[in-house]
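Hey, sorry to bother you again with one of my protein questions. There's a protein on my desk that I can't quite get my head around. No rush at all, and the record is pasted right below.
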Amino acid sequence: MDAVIMGISDNKLTDWRADALQLMSEVGKVIVGQERAIRLITIAIFSRGHVLLEGDVGVGKTTLLRAITRGIGGKYERIEGTVDLMPNDMVYHTYIGEDGRPHVDAGPLLRSGEDLSVFFFNEINRARPQVHALMLRVMAEQSLHAFKREYRLPHMIVFADRNQVEREETFEIPSAARDRFMMEIPILVPEDRGTRKSLVFDTKFHNTDSLTAKVSPGILAFDQLNSFSVMLQNGIQASPIIQDYAMDLWQATQTPAAWPCY
């Protein structure tokens, strides 16, 4: 009989761990020099937490997320933050069809339905606070009310990055709202000279479609991660020392003067 730990069999844990390692390996083959970022993103995926990516333009964030999406399955959607972006642009867009009549299509949040697994908000700080409010609410509730009905997005993880070069017409997310992101992960330019040279001159890194196609598809079952994450989190308990340390930190942030400095 298999030993059962935390309500999950050892075999099940071993299988999921093997899948996670395979995902990191497959993505690492096409996204070079980002081993730490890939590992942290994998942790966020299993923890079902949203991620704020930090990094300059052109470091491969979009390619990384497309590779991750191929590895976990589900659909990938992306939107660009602009100063004229409105909340309704996330939900639907209108156009005049060939018949000369107005039509309405689902926007990036609704287009893939419950199959949406990765949503990338590029340069989120270029969008206005009204857009942030909608995005943050959807991240928290994993659902959206539109067209007199509720749309569920149970498997969606949001990744966002910020334009760190321009300061005009940008709107930073308030610090209190950034807790919707479980992690802030830096995507840095690789320091190794050989890796940099490959990224610049090896043409295989210049075609995102062909590059991400090299990742084995569906390594993780994106629509099973929620249930596995619940079992995993319900079974893991912090030691009493860690619990007391966390409570001390919490209290120290509320009444710092009452706590000695060590």
